[in-house]
Amino acid sequence: METxxxxxxxxRGETLGTISSQSSSEEIFQNRTLRPIxxxxxxxxxxxxxxxxxxxxxxxxxxxxxxxxxxxxxVIQRDIKFRNSLKGMVIAFFTxxxxxxxxxxxxxxxxxxxxxxxxxxxxxxQLIEVND
Length: 132
Description:
Number of strands: 0
Structural class: mainly alpha
Helix content: over 70%
Mean pLDDT: 91
Low-confidence stretches: none
């Protein structure tokens, strides 16, 4: 598994965000693991969301920009199957060591992960709108 872990780390790239001696273990995990994975998987997350919106009768595309932001947040928080699919896209890029750390505090790390993903999608609303 050493080869897989090295490949995953190489693909993800460097830590994003600041880590200091005052950083909590969750903050460190967020900046070392979650942020690089979210960046790596960004284009896929956008396409997955577009596909989801299309399958949901295209309601998203007729909303005002403000309501689109609310829609993104609500969908990711309330549609458990969709949220679990997104989580799986992130977890797939964990090393074995990171996965062991993740399962120790998965509830809090899931919240961070989903909040970061929600903000990432909201900030790219133009990309999602282009495809309507």
